[in-house]
Amino acid sequence: MNKKILIIGAGPCGLGAAYRLQELGHSNWKIYEANPCVGGLSRSMKDDKGFIWDIGGHVIFSHYPYFDALFEKLLSGQYAAHTRSCWIRIMSSFVPYPFQNNLNFLPPDITVECLLGLIKAQNQEQAPSNFKEWTSMTFGEGISKYFMHPYNSKVWAHPLEEMSFSWVAERVSAVDLKKILESVVKNTKDTQWGPNNQFKFPLHGGTGGLFEKIVPFIKDHLFLNKEAVSINTAKKEISFSDGSKERYDALISTMPLNEFIRCSDLHGLEEAADSLRYSSVLAVGVGLKGETPSDKTWLYFPESDCPFYRVTYFSNYSPNNAPEGCWSLLTEVSHSEYKHEDKGTIVEKVIEGLKNTGLITSKMEIVDTYVFDAKHAYPTPTLGRDAALAAIQSKLMELDIYSRGRFGAWMYETGNMDHSVMQGVEAVNKILLGADETVWRLKQ
Question: Domains in the chain, please, with CATH?
Answer without folding.
Answer: 5-38+214-276+381-433 (3.50.50.60), 45-84+196-204+278-378 (3.90.660.20), 98-186 (no CATH)
